[in-house]
Amino acid sequence: QVQLVQSGGGSVQAGGSLRLSCAASGGTFDDYAIGWFRQAAGKGRQFVATITQSGGSQHYADSVKGRFIISRDNAKNTVWLQMRDLQPQDTAVYYCAASVLQSTVPTVGADFRSWGPGTQVIVSS
Hints:
Layout: E1 3-7, E2 10-13, E3 18-25, E4 33-39, E5 45-51, E6 58-60, E7 68-73, E8 78-83, E9 92-99, E10 114-115, E11 119-124
Parallel strand pairs: 2-11
Antiparallel strand pairs: 1-3, 3-8, 4-5, 4-9, 5-6, 7-8, 9-10, 9-11
């Protein structure tokens, strides 16, 4: 089973940018679609973005479409989430997750079997 290690995150002013990384080990990376989720304090987990095994398809939540970009390099076993024009409502703990689904693009937590530890993103106004 793949293990995921996250890096990036931190604090930025509104309008700023951050890039999150999710590095995988212990599995065949291109067997997995990778998703990003976030959870704000006191709220439920929210889907952010998914990229398919080959990287050929990406899916975004409406709230981040046009501002966030998910990408991957299978040679480096890494997925990135580039976030720009960040807003205070983007403040949350961000998690990457791995899914073996291939028939559909996974977008719900139950579709994912391995999760990263989470990284905090704080956006101040």
